[in-house]
Predict the 3D structure of the following.
Amino acid sequence: MKPLSRLKGAISATGRLAPILRSGLIAGVVVAAVTYPLAAVGGLGLKAGADFYDSLPAELKSLPPAQTSYVYASDGKTLLTNFYEEHRKYSPIADVSENIRKAIVASEDGRFYEHNGVDAKGIARAFVANHTAGEVSQGASTLTMQYVRMALRDGAQTPSEVMAATEQTPLRKIREARLAIKVEKELSKTDILERYLNVAYFGHRAYGVFAAAQIFFSKLPKDLTLAESATLAGLVKAPTAYDPAGSDQTAATQRRNYVIDRMAELGYITPEVAATTKKEPIKLKITEPPNDCIAVAKQNNSWGFFCDMFKNWWLSQPAFGANPGEREDNLRRGGYKITTSLDPKVQDIAMDHVTKRQPIGSAYALGEVVVQPGTGLVKAMAVNRTYSLDQDGNGAHTDPKRYGKVKGNYPNTVNPLLGGGNLPGYQAGSTFKIFTMVAALDAGMKMNTWFYAPHRYKSQYFAGWGERGSCGGGHWCPSNASGSMTGNHAMWSGFGKSVNTYFVQLEQKVGADKAVRMAERLGLKWRTDIDQLQASPGKSKTWGSFTLGVADTTPLEMANAYATMAADGKFCEALPVTGIIKPDGTPAMMDVKGKQVPVATPRCRQEVSKDVARAATDAMRCVTGYGAAKGGCGGWSTAPGVYGMVDRPVAGKTGTTDDTRAAWFVGFTKELAAAAFMADPDNPFHATGDYNAWKPIETVAYTLKDSLKGKDVQQFTPPSDNILGKKPANLPKMKKKKKN
């Protein structure tokens, strides 16, 4: 009698089919029913089964398994981290050792090359063994059926689909069997084996042979030895029970040796090779692949802040999903190769100069961002913090209201202190004068726009509630940092000396709203309620203090805004990637005005004219001691030593807030722009003091110098004479003080 006939007879004779199915003892037995008309197997809910198959994808083989996304530095080789739910990378079978191919077949389905997806002999053998043992001691699922189950699991989009793919019922077995037969008609055995190897679970979050080879042996699948292959193949049946990474390898060794014996029985290896291999101990070289930003390598901990900025950028991109949840799922399952803009050399340089001037462990944060003009590529993000969630050893909170109640965010934090996240940032002081100057130039005003700047000036703007500098009639009356600033100034000396009363007059002439709009055009966003209110169309015309930097911003935004001047007026959005490649080898695309372009394409626009940008740069050269090409800087400036430090053409701006609660410097060459700040992120009223103002200046200057060492010097292009204007013949004279 044929096996199927004996099986059918046994079921008929005993009359125990229903109890056996309910107990789950030989659920695999019903697979035999797929070789008969469906009507012959009653009472199993086959109508529901048919409906399930009607709703399946047209081709199961097209279901993509989740794959790990790999994130690299700008060289495309240095790994920053991975993102995954299930660590997996697809490996073509040509890149997989023949040892593991044969070991999997021997372990899971010795008749794989003989059946059509359902193994009738295997079903009969399992039924007899399970019925005799009174429990499930053998399974009847073929390798193809297992692939179907795993592919349905990986392709599930809803909880009900996951349950349908994994539920332990006879109906699921029938579903798998029917689909396995269909798969065998459409795919070759080699294709099925390749797909199986890439979806099988080996334990330790390793899905697929690539991840398994990497995690257990730190090697590629093509390099797996016979002993290693048998070890991995043995894991598929029960990854936890046969885990070789445990303290006791007895079960893992026995399972491995079973696989080796099966390979010998099938003629894949000789008995002699089997005997020799079984004597080898299991030798592991465990690798724990990093997952998410918090898992960056300890020696490169500072990369975590850049990684976090990249992740936030990804979650904002419509190209990767309709909402942040979909985008994160795509990042963790999409199998992308992501090459970021992070330059490890520049990052190390920036981190070195930051921590030399303000060591890790201080409540005061000193941070720096470096970007590339003309592309917006973020090259470095350094801050004197350790990227970590562990705050157990952190210092006391510096806010008196929170002191003793919660820990401070130093030295450990994951807060996006440098930008690219949801923190509002810090007031940036006089670095904001760039927005007033560029707005004025963009409106047609000339560099030779002269004002007499007294030490204190009564502006047309009214002081806000609680705003410092209120004077007669409720007007806002700002003053300069030094009496030596009093006198006549054009844009060169007004900017170089950071003359507040000059810039308030310039702002009045062009309109405070124009300065606010220019800041927005150059990439600033308003994150606090008060900034959003003040920047609104109805209020921005009266926001006189805007030019003195009372709004919050981040180093990332400021570096990018100043980089626009270095790029002759071309503004580029901050971009953390240079390439994003999908598993099929094609670039990830986005829609730009109805046209598909790579997501990693720089997003630039000519925001102001070249002449406006060059004129602003000429004034900013006064600050650094480099000197203007077309105007007079007035004999001194706020950071005259920068040119000597950088030793190449450089422009920039210092900035301090009231009581020096924060100190800033933003500087740029033609090649790089950098912004550094110093403040207490936990308590903005915890003043850094004037004595610390040099730290952001030196940090930027020496970062630029060292990052550009050995590279050709690029010169700034002077502005045209058309934008200069003429110096007035009669300028107001400085008022002499009366003698007592």
Q: What stands out?
A: Residues 202 and 236 are 5 Å apart (CA to CA). Residues 1-59 have pLDDT under 50 and may be disordered. The chain is about 35% helix and 10% strand. The two ends are 129 Å apart (CA to CA).
